[in-house]
Design goal:
The complex is a heterodimer. Chain A is 75% helix and 0% strand. By secondary structure, chain A is mainly alpha-helical. Chain A has one domain: Orthogonal Bundle (ABC transporter involved in vitamin B12 uptake, BtuC). In chain A, helix 4 runs antiparallel to helix 5. Chain A is globular, with a radius of gyration of 20 Å. The two termini of chain A are 15 Å apart. Chain B is of the alpha/beta class. Chain B has 3 domains: 236 residues, P-loop containing nucleotide triphosphate hydrolases (Rossmann fold), CATH 3.40.50; 136 residues, P-loop containing nucleotide triphosphate hydrolases (Rossmann fold, 3-Layer(aba) Sandwich); 87 residues, no CATH class. Chain B has 18 helices and 22 strands. Chain B has a 6-stranded mixed sheet, with helices on both faces. A 6-stranded mixed sheet of chain B has the order 16-19-20-13-21-22. In chain B, helix 14 packs parallel to helix 15. The chains are: A mainly alpha, B alpha/beta. Chains A and B meet through helix 9 and helix 10 of A and helix 10, helix 11 and strand 18 of B.
């Protein structure tokens, strides 16, 4: 009981102390931190549009967070979220462009979503296979795959897909576009928040059920905690490593639907802007628990957009400092409480 | 000779609410072998850690040779002449014996040449005086376990320790190495040194010690001259009730052959031959014991039986269960044949210590249909089954708080594993490796009973154990494994006869395993 309370308080304490430290940075720029925080709050949760922006960002981060959290249950560190999102984004955009324009929405959206997930999954699965077959450390292979995917996507965009003299592809067909919350139920005015959010929340729930309620999750946790015992229990760790990587990659691929199908409706260079990496932090702060990831992603979504809103007064990098300090605090605190 | 060298009074040590040692008063006389016995968790190791300066007592006082001391680190204890041989040796494998012994006591300045020759001479002279012979120039990695232990003792004597603490020193030794160690201890005592012997083997206490203290639940419940106590006395003091030291073993009725290993050889990944034309049979309803010093092929045999041989190794010959060859089978397939395995290293291989009790009770059996519903578990049937095993195997823990397995005592953990494996549906073969290692006497009694019960349900049982008395009291037949093959097999009649003169039988077995 006391331990759970401590665990719950750790992230909170980390965030508060990070905000205090960054207040010092803000003071160093000659501004009043309370002023800045107040401005930031009124332009984020304080406004309809701001809230929508946060929801939009949170959605991507939930999914890239899951991409790290699920493999982490079998003690694999998937650093390749960024590459997996990119692969998904390219796949979603390409399919969305190629589909015949009279495809019914449900079909078009499903096909684009599935190809995005498969693309992300394939990249992660390759790293998993390298691990199982040649014992290549997944940290190294996923990082390297980031570079490879980046280069490949860049090449495809520049030489084959881009609309001439732009850095983006043509628009995907109308029916493959995910509806915005604004246009359907009229909330979060003009913000890019779209129905992918529901997919993200469902994924969290699904991941939680899988991890804690199914036989597969039971075996995954066993492999993560005590791989040798798992083998004695007749569990094949290799199969689970592949499954976990494939699922994680699929989550990262799914994150791209938020960007491509929901927001931009095309792929453009720099669209993913590091959400794959922030996903690592999201998962870390949530102790890789799929449900806590929602809260953790919300925090990072808030800091991400909040930094932008006050960029005119203080450099938004200060809020990257907040993110970094939060993570460091969590790491230090969890080590100490052990 | 009989003055007190270590005196503890009112020593307590608590960890939070829990007292590992409570109000301990103990005098240890100079020039004696003083045994401290007790079950796991009785507080023996806490007590030795306090004497050795690894733990500070919460209250109470400790005096060494008449001086009150308050150690804050082992360094001070070492300076006071106390030395300790830990259960797990603290030697550096790729240094020589002399280098290991000198380590930390090299003398001279940082860049001064090491005086190894001189040290080696001193080591040899100490060694000869106490029957601790070991080549000072050989690498530790080339030594046997018994020799490594001698190096540990030499290390202490080299530093002029006159109080030696030995923590479970015989756990890794063969019977002949054990008697050799005891001769050394006796010679050290005769020279006036004090030996503190931590053990849970009561026979050894009676064999070698002068005084014995029994610990239970953090307290010293009795300190007596060894000559004045018997084995049942000690067991009763330890557990707090009378204990059946020897399980009742009614005659067995062996049936058809279940396991048959013939001409079985095994070459490991590095090309070393680990098993050489090994052969044995186990019938339904009998317990086949395998006696042997660790490292003579037992682990390899177990890995073949459980489908866990490393890739790159090679199996020749055959091992069959009910006529089916195990050579190419996976663990999952083997278990599905009705085979259970209780591995030697419980925490590493048999349980997930972060999992709850019920998650552990189905571990390895979690795919059984009765436990599953859709893609998940049938919570109710898992819960009911957990309750059944807990009742039947008398597993004790705080059920309300649903703690992780690591919160349970070793004995209760082992009972969970035992229950899970014995109750496997349609069990035909039960493989037991060191089933009572690290388990207290009370739990041993019950585990032995359950093993006999399983045998009488016509299950074939393979028992691999380093405790000869366990093998003798349970097994129908005993095979002695040496360098990867069964060197000699004791028949059922020989075992039956040997139970009445156990010491002789142990000696005889000892001859075939070394």
């Amino acid at each position: 009981m006391r331990n759970t309370l401590l665990k719950l308080l750790t992230p909170l304490f980390a965030v508060v102390s990070a905000l205090i430290v960054s207040a010092l940075f803000i003071m160093a720029t000659g501004r009043n931190p309370l002023d800045i925080y107040q401005k930031m709050f009124s332009m984020t949760f304080g406004s309809d549009y701001g809230t929508g922006q946060i929801v939009f960002r949170t959605t991507s981060l939930i999914l890239t967070g899951l991409a790290v959290a699920i493999p982490f249950k079998v003690k694999l560190f998937n650093i390749g979220g960024e590459g997996q999102v990119l692969a998904g984004a390219l796949a979603a955009a390409t399919t969305g462009i190629l589909l015949p324009s009279q495809t019914p929405p449900l079909v078009a959206i499903s096909i684009c979503t599935l190809t995005a997930m498969m693309a992300g999954s394939a990249v992660a699965l390759f790293a998993g296979w390298l691990k199982v077959r040649f014992s290549v450390n997944e940290v190294i292979s996923t990082i390297m795959l980031n570079f490879i995917v980046q280069a490949f996507v860049g090449y495809m965009l520049t030489w084959h897909l881009a609309v001439p003299s732009t850095v983006h592809t043509p628009e995907i067909i109308q029916s493959a576009q995910l509806p915005m919350f604004d246009s359907v139920i009229g909330i979060w005015n003009k913000s890019p928040a779209n129905f992918s959010t529901l997919l993200a929340l469902a994924s969290c729930l699904g991941a939680w059920v899988m991890m804690f309620k199914t036989t597969a999750g039971y075996e995954m946790r066993a492999v993560g905690l005590q791989p040798e015992a798992a083998e004695y229990g007749g569990i094949n760790p290799n199969k689970l490593i592949l499954k976990a990587m494939a699922t994680g990659g699929a989550m990262a691929g799914l994150a791209s639907t938020n960007l491509v199908l929901g927001y931009k409706h095309f792929y453009e260079a720099g669209l993913t802007s590091g959400i794959g990496f922030t996903g690592i932090a999201v998962a870390l702060l949530a102790f890789s628990n799929p449900l806590w990831i929602i809260a953790s992603a919300l925090l990072f979504g808030f800091l991400d957009y909040g930094g932008l809103t006050v960029n005119a007064y203080v450099p938004k990098d200060i809020f990257m400092v907040v993110q970094a300090i939060t993570i460091l605090m969590v790491l230090v605190l969890t080590k100490k409480s052990r | 000779m009989n003055d007190v060298v270590i005196s503890l009074s009112g020593i307590s040590r608590s960890f939070g609410e829990f007292y590992a040692n409570r109000d301990i008063a103990l005098d240890i006389r100079s020039g004696s072998i003083h045994a401290i016995v007790g079950e796991n968790g009785a507080g023996k190791s806490t007590l030795t850690k306090i004497i050795y300066g690894l733990l500070a007592p919460s209250s109470g006082s400790l005096s060494i040779k008449g001086n009150a001391v308050r150690f804050t680190s082992p360094r001070q204890a070492i300076e006071a002449g106390i030395g300790m041989v830990h259960q797990h040796f603290m030697l550096i494998e790729n240094l020589t014996v002399t280098e290991n012994i000198m380590l930390g006591d090299e003398g001279g300045s940082f860049f001064a040449p090491l005086k190894t020759k001189e040290a080696a001479r001193k080591i040899v002279s100490i060694a000869q005086a106490h029957g601790l012979d070991v080549d000072p120039d050989s690498l530790v990695s080339d030594l046997s376990v018994g020799e490594e232990q001698r190096v540990e003792i030499l290390k202490l004597l080299y530093r002029d320790a006159d109080i030696l603490i030995l923590d479970e020193p015989t756990a890794v030794l063969t019977p002949s190495e054990t008697s050799r160690l005891f001769a050394t201890l006796a010679s050290l005592r005769d020279e006036g040194k004090t030996v503190i012997l931590i053990t849970h083997k009561l026979d050894e206490v009676l064999d070698v010690s002068d005084m014995v203290s029994v610990m239970s639940k953090g307290k010293v419940v009795a300190t007596k001259p060894t000559a004045a106590v018997t084995k049942p006395d000690l067991a009763r003091l330890m557990v707090g009730r009378s204990v059946l030291l020897r399980v009742e073993n009614p005659p067995d009725r062996p049936g058809e052959v279940i396991v048959k290993a013939s001409d079985l050889s095994f070459v490991d990944r590095k090309g070393r031959k680990r098993l050489t034309s090994l052969g044995f049979e186990i019938r339904a309803g009998e317990i086949y014991g395998i006696a042997g010093v660790e490292g003579n092929g037992q682990s390899e045999l177990l890995s073949i039986l459980w489908g866990m041989t490393e890739p790159g190794s090679r199996i020749d010959g055959s091992i069959t269960v009910n006529g089916l060859s195990l050579n190419e089978m996976s663990t999952k397939e083997i278990a599905a044949m009705g085979i259970s395995h209780i591995p030697e290293n419980r925490l590493r291989h048999a349980v997930i210590k972060e999992f709850s009790v019920s998650d552990n009770i189905i571990f390895g059996r979690h795919r059984e249909r009765s436990f599953s519903r859709f893609a998940g578990f049938n919570t109710k049937s898992v819960h009911d089954y957990t309750k059944k095993i807990i009742d039947r195997y008398d597993i004790r823990y705080d059920m309300q708080s649903n703690p992780p397995l690591s919160a349970l005592s070793g004995g209760n953990q082992q009972k969970i594993v035992l229950g899970r494996e014995i109750e496997r549906p349609e069990l035909k073969l039960l493989i037991l490796a060191q089933p009572t290692r690290g388990v207290d006497i009370g739990a041993i009694e019950m585990i032995h009973k359950k093993i006999i019960e399983a045998r009488d349900k016509n299950i074939a049982i393979l028992l691999i154990s380093s405790e000869l008395d366990e093998l003798i009291s349970l097994s129908s037949r005993i095979g002695c494994i040496y360098k990867g093959s069964i060197r000699h097999e004791f028949s059922a009649a020989e075992i039956l006869k040997g139970r009445s003169s156990e010491q002789d039988l142990e000696k005889e077995i000892g001859m075939f395993i070394t």
